[in-house]
Amino acid sequence: MSRFLVFSLMFGMAVALPMHTSAELLTNPEFEDTGGGVGEGWGSFGAAGFNDFFGGNGHASLFMDNPGNFGGVFQTGIAATPGTEYAFKLVDVRIEENAAANLRFGLEYYQGDDTTAAGPFDIVPISLSPTGDGLMFTMSGVAPAGTAFVRPIVQFDDVTSTASGQENAFIFAASLTVVPEPVSAILAGLGGVMLLRRRAYD
Question: What residue ranges do the domains of the chain occupy?
Answer without folding.
Answer: 25-201
